[in-house]
Design goal:
Radius of gyration: 19 Å
Number of domains: 1
Helix content: 40-55%
Number of helices: 11
Strand content: 5-15%
Shape: globular
Mean pLDDT: 86
């Protein structure tokens, strides 16, 4: 299975107020939901995520628990961005110097959180790196002025995905926010985007990355059909999408979403 990567503009104060403070006092959800005009449907989902967070064991992976839940909650409250497979965590494996743009979550979480933290995407349905606001601005500046940084980012975020990542960074910069990486918060279906799955608010997801994923998938299937002398559309018409997480997805979150975005 590949990785459906999302980038969530958020800062350290919001991580505390939207998640860790709410773990201690779930009634805070009402005020937060009101401030960000969250619909009752997603307010209820917010409460469900907090309930799951309260059941986290101390030895559970931070990325697979609290970190992922923070990303999901951010998506209830604010816009976030999707790119297929382009995880900053994976870039660090190829170009370790990009570590300088990240912040260790151990310096962010309250002392009561003892879960092991790796600051990386290690598997599906997890959080990854956190780029703080100061480093968001620095990374954008270095992209403009440092040829090595630009070359490495352009090469890694290939096939148009660099545009999505840069917009996520710019959005975060304009709001003085950091950027939290996560995986499988949203799972676009490239064969039918209206059948996409989401564990947050799909309507807050920037759509460009999903369209890039669809274009790449269609091009790949077309090439395979030509290679094996198949009829046009034969692979796409017989392909089946599998969502690894068996949690039921509410129909309201996906029905007609991509059509509505385009008008």
């Amino acid at each position: 299975m590949g990785y459906d990567i999302s980038y969530h503009p958020i800062n350290e104060t919001e991580i505390k107020e939207w998640y860790f403070d709410v773990l201690n006092d779930p009634e805070l959800i009402t005020g937060i939901a009101g401030q960000y005009q969250v619909e009752d449907f997603y307010k209820e989902k917010y409460q469900q995520v907090i309930n799951i967070g309260l059941g986290t064991n101390p030895d559970d992976s931070f990325e697979r628990s609290h970190g992922y839940y923070i990303a999901v909650i951010q998506g209830f409250l604010r816009k976030y961005y999707y790119t297929r497979g382009s995880a900053f965590s994976f870039l660090l494996e190829e170009r370790p110097y990009f570590e300088r743009y990240t912040r260790d979550f151990k310096t962010i979480v309250p002392d009561s959180i003892s879960n092991p933290i790796s600051n990386r995407i290690a598997q599906n349905y997890s959080s990854g790196v956190f780029i703080p606001a100061t480093q968001v601005a620095r990374l954008l500046e270095d992209y403009e002025n440092d040829q090595a940084v630009r070359t490495d980012l352009d090469g890694f975020f290939s096939d148009g995905r660099i545009g999505v990542f840069l917009r996520a960074l710019e959005d975060a910069k304009q709001q003085a926010l950091g950027l939290l990486e996560a995986t499988e918060v949203v799972e676009p279906n490239p064969l039918n985007l209206n059948d996409s799955a989401c564990y947050s608010n799909l309507f807050n997801c920037d759509q460009e990355g999903a369209y890039l994923f669809k274009q790449a998938a269609m091009a790949q299937m077309k090439a395979m059909e030509e290679q094996h002398n198949l009829q046009p559309g034969e692979i796409a018409n017989n392909a089946e999408r599998v969502v690894m997480n068996t949690e039921e997805i509410e129909e309201k979150e996906k029905k007609g979403f991509w059509k509505k975005l385009l008008g």
